[in-house]
């Protein structure tokens, strides 16, 4: 090749690289900083405004919208928009309130029968399943049909266990009766529900979506496709569902509070399958209106920005975590060893190690439930001398001779907790071997009798009441050889007695006292070392109003309103990514 | 293009082998997936009690002997019935049909970018062999191969999506135009590695071919240089590229697990991750079967393509 051509090519090549380098530098120089604080503020209205679209996100797809069979949290969030129950949970403090019922049910003298009176202005959503497409009136007969359909064995509802107390359920499920004898339609708007024995926890079940009234026409019309074709009485209708991508909800004109203008936003848009990192970036850019989970790094960055403070809340979740011990296996069949473990866990170190995202506790009932006892003497606190004393009482003054296996979940978090346990228990002479397992294996291991000596233990509520923790985790009734929910295989007749008494107690204060007594015994026996409840930070955009993290319903958007039009905040850096591509062009034109 | 002799025989042989391989893979994964753990626990979660778990196992036939379940599965699968997902209670075929077009859009765009950038850079580098252009771009290509998507993905998403606002921050969007703009960034990120590979292979092939006698003859005859390069040289240099493309066809279907995860792309890759996490055996099996078929299909296509491009490659038994 002639040398002149060669050199001109070299020059072209160099030029190309220089241009590339320049482009990179310019890009680097002009990359804006991440925004500090919210990008958008509300318009400043004081009263609820109608209109707008609330955009929220979820990590997975929802599984279905049939309230009778869906129990996972993400599906539950759509179900709460589409359906209402006779009762609902209110916050501060957590309590039951009437929703579709006109008032709280009357309880009979013997405490077994509850009389529910329906509001008389209730209609199902408009749907093709009804004659003429207009939603028909919801009446007492629908309550009976809905409960019977949910409790029928063919439905396969995971909710059955919460309603088994209704008189006649067993005969109905065995096929011996065509109706449930304990459900009695008194008149068009009144239904009596009778239990086999008095039980106050039953009312919590009636606020669970399993008990949401549904029209039989929809189940007859859609059959297996009912999970994608909800017909309910909720604030919203499902307008469109692109599997794995998004769901769109629009306002239900038949909603019983429609005459008060509720719900306020025109629509709610669920973005599905976003991870936390992506959702956080979108939230900070003002593309998502509520942030319910953050990565640890984002959590700290956002918490350090005072601009976000009025629009964020850290709340304790109704969940309990700790170190579970199998009370049937050595060395934890010895009460003193268990108590030693409870004293040896250096909880404050755990909290610091987990970036302050643990709300430390020392008892089985989460702090946001009324039965939590703030005055319970702290036996589950870090006290290494007390721990050593318990080890001496147990006859292990020089430590436990054989290593103990601690089972934990997979991934970094699982191993992390394993290492914390390992370090703490080394101080009292218990040598820990960490075993990590995938979630299904882990559950299987810990719920099989005489199998797992020690494990990372956690439980979240089915409904917001102490019975949803104590009865399930520590009552003798919950022990099974396989799939045992009492994973400590802990059995104490006195605890059983108190729990059974509390279930039927109608006086709220006395009930709370009974649960606190049971709690105190459990704490002293230490089947688990109770360590923490999760602390979540949630944030919302300044223009999202009337939103508070709900202790029972995750991401509960039914009552929000949007303060629109939102206004861009000048101080926040960066570019809007509302026009996805080619935003720089827009900037040049401005 | 001529149809080479023995093509039919090749096809029959390859398809028969393909069926056996798909069958073997299905069998292996069936016993593996069922051996990992208890799908009932994975599906119903920690709050399920033992009665509910037993009910679930019975409902889905999980309480029957594994071999019996296997025979049933294979029989149904052979008839095109991949069963219903445990988790979503949707037909597996339906779930895959929802995801497949999205994955094909993403991987298709990525493949297009790879070929467009890779081949043109490879040809240009070969023509300007040993110049700064050549070494510069081949160096960049080397860099491109070396940076995996799980490093480059989060960086480009943060810079070009979040900070600059040039691209949407992950996801799939609502309208078809949205889908395209949402696919741009992940497709380009994915394409960097592929383009670098194609560029390097194309360059070395072109360098060989450009020195060949027939190219020199063509040039000597005074043919238009661009025709010489594109018509004569490039066509022959494409042979290994065609094999490479064939090997990438399964990727079109199976999705790019890491890219889809980083960019929240709701395709096959994310589906299989979710299925494995939830121990959703029918769904895991469904994805495996589809992917195994795609691998076989890609290989056959590559063999046929090469045979048609290069008459010297002999078909049939040697």
Walk me through the structure.
The complex is a heterodimer of chains A (about 600) and B (about 325). Chain A has about 600 residues and is α+β, with helices and mostly antiparallel strands. Chain A has 17 helices and 22 strands. In chain A, strands 12, 13, 14, 15, 16, 17, 18 and 19 form an 8-stranded mixed sheet that branches. A 4-stranded mixed sheet of chain A has the order 2-11-10-9, with no helix packed on it. Chain B is an all-alpha fold and about 325 residues long. Chain B has helices at about 5-35, 40-45, 50-60, 65-80, 90-125, 130-145, 150-165, 175-210, 215-220, 225-235, 240-255, 255-260, 270-275, 280-310. At the A-B interface, α1, α7, α13 and β18 of A face α2, α3, α5, α6 and α7 of B.
Into which percentage range does the β-strand content of chain A fall? 15-25%
What is the share of helical residues of chain A? 25-40%
Low-confidence stretches of chain A: 572-590
Principal-axis shape of chain A equals: globular
Average pLDDT confidence of chain B is 85
Helix content of chain B: over 70%
């Amino acid at each position: 090749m002639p040398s002149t051509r060669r050199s001109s090519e070299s020059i072209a090549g160099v030029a190309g690289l220089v241009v590339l380098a320049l482009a990179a530098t310019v890009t680097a120089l002009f990359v804006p900083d991440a925004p500090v604080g919210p990008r958008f503020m509300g318009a400043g209205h004081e009263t609820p405004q109608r209109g707008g679209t609330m955009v929220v996100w979820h990590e997975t797809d929802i599984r279905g919208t049939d309230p009778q069979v869906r129990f996972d949290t993400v599906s539950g969030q759509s179900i709460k928009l589409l359906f209402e129950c006779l009762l609902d949970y209110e916050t501060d403090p957590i309590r039951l309130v009437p929703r579709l019922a006109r008032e709280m049910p009357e309880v009979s003298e013997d405490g077994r029968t509850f009389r529910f009176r329906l509001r008389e202005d209730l209609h199902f959503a408009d749907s093709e399943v009804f004659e003429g497409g207009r939603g028909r009136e919801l009446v007492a007969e629908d309550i009976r049909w809905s409960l019977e359909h949910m409790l029928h064995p063919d439905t396969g509802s995971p909710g059955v266990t919460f309603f088994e107390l209704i008189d006649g359920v067993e005969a109905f499920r065995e096929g011996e009766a065509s109706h449930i004898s304990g459900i009695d339609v008194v008149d068009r708007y009144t239904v009596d529900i009778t239990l086999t024995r008095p039980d106050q926890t039953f009312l919590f079940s009636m606020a669970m979506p399993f008990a949401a009234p549904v029209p039989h026409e929809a189940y007859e019309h859609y059959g297996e496709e009912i999970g994608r074709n909800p017909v309910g009485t909720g604030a919203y209708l499902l307008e469109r569902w692109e599997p794995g991508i998004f769901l769109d909800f629009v306002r239900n004109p038949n909603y019983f509070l429609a005459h008060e203008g509720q719900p306020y936003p025109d629509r709610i848009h669920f973005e599905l399958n976003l991870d936390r990192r992506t959702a956080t970036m979108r939230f900070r850019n003002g593309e998502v209106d509520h942030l319910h989970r953050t990565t640890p790094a984002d959590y700290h960055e956002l918490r350090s920005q005072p601009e976000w403070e009025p629009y964020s809340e850290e709340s304790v979740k109704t969940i309990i975590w700790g170190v579970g011990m199998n009370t049937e296996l050595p060395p934890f069949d010895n009460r003193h060893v268990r108590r030693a473990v409870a004293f040896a866990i250096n909880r404050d170190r755990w909290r610091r190690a987990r970036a302050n995202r643990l709300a430390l506790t020392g008892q089985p009932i989460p702090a946001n439930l009324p039965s939590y006892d703030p005055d319970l003497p702290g036996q589950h606190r870090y006290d290494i001398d007390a721990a050593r004393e318990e080890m001496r009482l147990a006859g292990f003054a020089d430590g436990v001779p054989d290593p103990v296996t601690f089972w934990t979940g997979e991934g970094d978090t699982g191993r992390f907790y394993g290492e914390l346990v390992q370090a703490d228990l080394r101080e009292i002479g218990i040598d820990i071997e960490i075993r990590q397992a995938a979630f299904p294996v882990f559950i299987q291991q810990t719920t099989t009798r005489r199998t797992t000596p020690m494990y990372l233990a956690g439980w979240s509520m089915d409904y917001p009441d102490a019975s949803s923790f104590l009865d399930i985790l520590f009552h003798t009734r919950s022990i099974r050889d396989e799939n045992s929910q009492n994973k400590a295989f802990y059995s104490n007749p006195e605890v059983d007695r108190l729990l059974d008494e509390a279930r039927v107690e109608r006086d709220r204060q006395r009930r709370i006292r009974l649960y606190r007594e049971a709690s105190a015994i459990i704490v002293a026996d230490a089947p688990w070392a109770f360590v923490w409840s999760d602390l979540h930070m949630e944030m919302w955009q300044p223009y999202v109003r009337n939103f508070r993290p709900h202790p029972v319903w995750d991401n509960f958007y039914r009552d929000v309103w949007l303060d629109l039009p939102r206004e861009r905040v000048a101080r926040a850096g960066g570019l809007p990514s509302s026009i996805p591509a080619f935003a720089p062009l827009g900037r040049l034109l401005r | 293009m001529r149809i080479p002799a023995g093509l039919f025989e090749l096809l029959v042989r390859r398809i028969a082998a393909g069926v056996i391989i798909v069958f073997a893979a299905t069998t292996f994964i069936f016993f593996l997936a069922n051996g990992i753990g208890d799908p009932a626990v994975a599906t119903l979660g920690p709050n399920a009690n033992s009665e509910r778990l037993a009910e679930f196992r019975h409902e889905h036939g999980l309480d029957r002997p594994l071999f019996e379940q296997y025979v049933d599965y294979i029989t149904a699968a052979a008839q095109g019935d991949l069963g219903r997902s445990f988790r979503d209670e949707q037909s597996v075929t339906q779930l895959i049909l929802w995801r497949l077009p999205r994955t094909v859009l993403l991987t298709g765009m990525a493949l297009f970018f790879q070929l467009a950038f890779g081949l043109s850079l490879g040809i240009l580098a070969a023509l300007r062999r040993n110049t700064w252009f050549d070494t510069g771009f081949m160096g960049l290509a080397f860099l491109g191969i070396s940076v995996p998507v799980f490093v480059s993905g989060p960086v480009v998403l943060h810079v070009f999506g979040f900070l600059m606002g040039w691209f949407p921050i992950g996801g799939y969007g609502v309208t078809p135009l949205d889908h395209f703009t949402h696919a741009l960034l992940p497709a380009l990120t994915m394409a960097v590695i592929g383009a670098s590979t194609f560029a390097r292979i194309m360059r070395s092939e072109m360098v060989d071919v450009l020195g060949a006698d027939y190219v020199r003859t063509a040039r000597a005859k005074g043919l238009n240089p661009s025709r010489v390069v594109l018509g004569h040289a490039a066509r022959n240099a494409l042979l290994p590229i065609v094999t490479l493309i064939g090997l990438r066809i399964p990727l079109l279907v199976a999705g790019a697990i890491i890219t889809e995860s980083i960019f929240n792309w709701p395709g096959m890759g994310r589906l299989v991750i979710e299925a494995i996490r939830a121990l959703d055996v029918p769904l895991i099996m469904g994805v495996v079967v589809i992917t195994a078929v795609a691998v076989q299909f890609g290989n056959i296509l590559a063999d046929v393509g090469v045979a048609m491009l290069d008459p010297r490659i002999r078909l049939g038994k040697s």
